[in-house]
Amino acid sequence: MKSDNVLTLEKTSLEDVVAIAEKGTHCGMCKIDFLGTGLCPSGKKHGFLAYWPQGRMEIVKALASGRVKPTEKLIDIANSCSLCGICDKQCNFATQLRPEKVARALKEYVNSLDKSEFQNVEEDKVLVELQKIVGDEWATNDPIIITSYVRSIIPPDVELNFYIVMPENAEQVSKIIKFANKNNIPFLPRSGGTALSVATPTVLSNATSLENGIVIDLLRLKKLEIHPESCTAKVGAGITAFELQKAAYKHKLRANVAEAGAHICANIATTGVITTWGNKYGCFADNFIDLELVDNDGIIKNHRDMEISNPYTTEHGFTNISLSPSYIITESTVKLYPVFDDEEAVLVPFENLEDALDMVMKLGKRGVGLSLAVLSYKYLAEFICPTPQIAKDFEDICKNYLKLRYVVDVICNKDDKKIVEEMAEYTIDQSMMKSLILGSPKLASLKDSEFMKILSEEEDPLKAIFAGPMRKHFEKGLDASPEQLAKVYDKDLQDFFKKVYSKPEMTNVVWLHAFRILPSRLMRQRMAMGPGGAVWAGDKDHILKWVDMFAEVGNKYNLEHALGFISPLDNGKFIYIEYDYFYNHNDPEAASRISKTLLETTEKSLAMGGIFTLINYLFKGIYRKEHVLYPLLKGLTKEEQIVFREVLQSVLGEYEQW
Amino acid sequence: MVKFLSEEWIEYGKKYMLEKLDPEKDLKNLTTSLLGVIEHVPPNDTTMNFYLELKDGKLNDFKVNTGDTFEGKEAIFVIRGNYGTYKDILEGKISTAMALLKNRLKLKGSKMEALKIIKPLDGLIESLRKITDEFEE
Prior knowledge:
The complex is a heterodimer of chains A (658) and B (137).
Chain A: H1 14-23, H2 41-46, H3 53-65, H4 72-79, H5 86-95, H6 99-111, H7 125-134, E1 139-140, H8 143-147, E2 162-165, H9 170-182, E3 187-190, H10 194-199, H11 205-208, E4 213-217, E5 224-227, E6 232-236, H12 241-249, E7 253-255, H13 264-270, H14 278-281, E8 288-295, E9 300-302, E10 327-338, E11 344-350, H15 353-366, E12 371-376, H16 377-384, H17 388-402, E13 406-412, H18 414-423, E14 428-429, H19 430-438, H20 440-445, H21 450-456, H22 461-466, H23 470-477, H24 482-486, H25 494-502, H26 509-515, E15 527-529, E16 532-536, H27 540-556, E17 560-569, E18 574-583, H28 588-608, E19 611-613, H29 614-617, H30 625-629, H31 638-652
Parallel strand pairs in A: 2-4, 3-4
Antiparallel strand pairs in A: 1-2, 5-6, 6-10, 7-10, 8-9, 8-10, 11-13, 11-14, 12-13, 12-17, 15-18, 16-18, 16-19, 17-18
Chain B: E1 2-3, H1 7-20, E2 32-41, E3 46-55, E4 58-66, E5 77-82, H2 83-90, H3 96-101, E6 106-108, H4 111-116, H5 118-131, E7 132-134
Parallel strand pairs in B: 1-7, 2-5
Antiparallel strand pairs in B: 2-3, 3-4, 5-6
Helix pairs in contact in B: 1-5
């Protein structure tokens, strides 16, 4: 069959599979076993992104557009997929996509090619040297494999002038860096790639990606040891948040971790671990005991080394911006915390942010709760609803009928729960949350119903359903069961999801907070960008003004937007805010609006003063919070604002091009 | 057009900067000095440097040397990076500010003060870009 080297398909619609591939947001959930299905066998064996469902989607897009031509390696990549269906289950839970269709299409395409159509990949001197360091199997310059890294470390429009190398220890990382420096080749480490993929559709693409050179994929650094006696864990750079948490939980211990697919070491290196557990467990350098690092000269260092200069301090001022890590963290020793038998979730609903903020700050200062945050109704809806449409209807109900705009979300022990309940007129408990999770499709279907209209006429609709006489009827009416919930999935997946939702942890709010498998739903089939930062907790007006600013800029650029979360840190001394913007990452015009939004909100935040913005947070995670956050910046002077603009233009180009 | 770090590069650079850059408009009447240290210079993996001095926006000194210091010259800013990074800057693949923020260039001196002069510095680099077309491989 003649194919002209561009992906064309007969059995499966090309448009269908490219559409699936384009909706992928590189959330990385296909690389963790969060549903108990096991991992993609091909990805687990071969490591390179090309062998994972996420990578195959990038390859299909590139083949379809003619950007890359088939190589011999493509046969191996396509045939390594056994069509076991694990990816469909995992991806469907998070994003409702069916990546197996993409893998099947790739197989059909490869089988349709003539041998003469494969492009030869020439071995070069650089590759040979890299292979000497990591072994032949773990270094490549194959354009098909390189393509799979596009959008999660390689910008979409550059020549594929790269090497992908997968070291297995710090010594190999060190040798790669020394070799790269000596030969004047740029390099950048890659872990989960999630932070990079969020930035890629925006003006930050070139700032955070590698323009050419060596991608150091750290996935093979898989060391994971739990030390219950010291409540610590040794974690290699290839270990994800989910993997660490799973191992820690076996010892009734918990780590403070980011989203399930994020890699622990990379997360420490970039922003530090920003979570709703931060008030109790800490932030920045609070989260680790020791780090093994490789610096940009290829020197291996440890924080425990006696002769190194203070590794916990960093420069101050808005110019402390850093767009790539000063070190590659190859291993971290992180702190673990006890899991208590009496832990529970308790949520307090609010109609306005000011009241929710008052409560969370009071709780934060008193040290109440293990995890403590204000969540917006949008966050809540995205997290607990199985599909985007159900989430949208759920949001409408919260907003228009229930007057539920925010919840103070607390994971705590029994004693703390009493304190929360004494402060709140009524709460949403674990049992009600389980009903809301399993009954979310039914609740969403009640949008525009008579029941909702009657409920909305109550003086306090939330009290009526969460604490009043209607609670029993409401819970019963939700018809909350794994069977009902599973019906929203594709027919062939319903049995599987019935079993998934029958597992206790899938409706256990404490477990869901600890393992963080739900935030990936924020990015289902679109991109979410969540700027924000840290601010002193003492000035409520300043905080509310800051949140209003995010909303105003979102409205100005016509973006879907909402508060993500507000969480106290350092015993309520300051708080972290994430504000989310959502957009179609395949639409350049939408990406341009996001770029302007991101930079405008950063500039306005810096001008307001007393704010440590997300851009300043980048690559500060290894430092002590006392050095990073004390003192917080005053508002920029006019002269400083000019400098800030000039630097932005020098780095990112003219404003009009964003 | 000349080779990066050659004697001709210095001569052409001086001439171009003096003729084409306006002290007030392009260089903001800047008084500063910069030592650029270039590591891993091919083919022998050597270290070289160039020293550039501006007084009131006028080029006062521009020299190239081997090693990582310039005897008798104390620069306000020292930027250090490998040959490939300087090449990428001079070829316009990456801006100086981007190289600094991505840790591809290491700065000794106040980052705030360095970023304040980023615009005139971009002008200087732009002029060097126009005269540089040859690099060691």
